[in-house]
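Wait, can you check?
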Amino acid sequence: MALFGFGSKSPKSSQSDETPEPKGETFQALTLEQMRSFLPRLPRARAQEVLPHLNDAMSEAGINTPRRQAAFLAQLAHESGEFRYFEELATGRAYERRKDLGNIKPGDGARYKGRGPIQITGRTNYRAAGKALELELEETPARAADLDVGFRTAAWFWNSRNLNKHADKGEFDAITRRINGGYNGKASREAYYQRALRLLGKK
């Protein structure tokens, strides 16, 4: 998170109100061609590597309409440097003794630094995500940087903040605020969002 100036992801309840799927909309997996159009600088091999895990996570989490997918893709593209970074480059020492993140033991800052394409942070978030996804992330936090887990933790974070509701209403700034704690990178996020909306036929 330090690399891009992301806001700290303070822990909240892993429970969320399930937002119903809008009528007439069904999940459509993102294709490789769409991914390459959305992020033309992303190497084809990397796109092929991340795409199935991204699609699985969106399907599992009910990110299943063009508006939801556009908002999700935009936020993740910004936060992960276009799916290049799944682990914060900073040491994580800035999170040491952050009780609001559940970091109460020596070394917790580095141990539970930002990982995954939305960079969940802090012992409490790792514990909550692991419980929700039936994974042992508190004991093996590095797993959150793996593609098969990282996209799922991002989708968990998304749903734990009930962000589909905001996506359905086109409230993209509200999503940014819930993810970032402010509006860091607002222009970049908005540019990705508009591109994704056009790509998915909603602009």
